[in-house]
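Reviewer 2 asked us to include a model.

Predict the structure of this chain.
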Amino acid sequence: MLVLAASNWDVKTFVMDSDEHCPASTCCSIFVKGSQLNFDDVISFGNRVDMITFEIENVNIEALKKLKSEGKKIFPDPDTLEIIQDKGLQKEFYQKHKIPSPEFLLYENKDEIIKAIETGTLTFPFVQKLRKGGYDGKGVAIIRTQKDMNNLLPGRSVIEKQIEIEKEISVITARNKKGEIKCFPVVEMEFNEGANLVEKLICPSSLNEETITRANEIAVHLISSFEMCGLLAVEMFVDKTNNVWVNEVAPRPHNSGHHTIESIITSQFEQLLRAIFNFPLGSTQIKMPSVMINLLGEPDHEGAVRYEGLTECLGIEGVKIHLYGKKKTKPFRKMGHVTILSTTIEEAKNKAMIVKQKLKVKSW
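Predicted model (structure tokens):
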């Protein structure tokens, strides 16, 4: 989606991925097969281009730092990425910059967590997040009672106090090198409990103006504190008393911004390009209310992908379907998304329910 946005400006795009059939491979200018975790692959790739950005946090940071020291333009900066890669460093950054975030403790391994529970220094309920490598709901465990202790994850962890969540929201904000900042409208997110993945996204949010203003202020404060050039997705909780808490951030285009392709004057992908090229940031005004749903692989299907209900859903007014071109499906794998536009959120929600019932990702 970023490559497609770049093609509008005649930007030559190079993409590196370990999968030669990755979604961007069919539309970029040059595809390079390689691992973003391999030092030599990242260095070799970086030396072929003028500017580097990324759409996954798990990149070899030492390679990016070396490229930066040699004068390569990298957005966001590797020093920012290094903090965001480690959820422990993220939490300490929030603490230092007075960003509201749930109380936390850091543990080196599962045994330390068990010992803390036994000695009473840690009590239920809490949320465990692995410090590194988690994405799309992986690397997170919600431990409500002693019965959930079998779900504890091995590895260095952040343990957070569990918040009584009223709503989960996201604000995507952009900043260019001149320091201009713009926020996209606050969106509400609904999650698939089984996969801990965003299942539905609603824009605009139904929150009151005071809460929306607070969420935007936090997002602006965060991207300014990072002195970041690029795009920052800020996932937040709104609790039962309307307090806003930062959950975590992603320094890249984000699933909670895919609806912007159709529903906002400037998409998140164009906005990222504007930011890193130091162009004026585009308008984030809503064109139409929208609901976005992720297309996830059906629970009992794994193998070559097939889609059911595609033609029928394309016949519904305001339905925009994006298939990512992944060849194989597996349970809860993200295979695409659908944005439903309408004059009212209620009508968009009703159409989204129909799409969700009819459009299925299955295997042959």
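The chain has three domains: 2-74, 103-161, 165-363. The mean pLDDT is 96. We have added this to the supplementary material.
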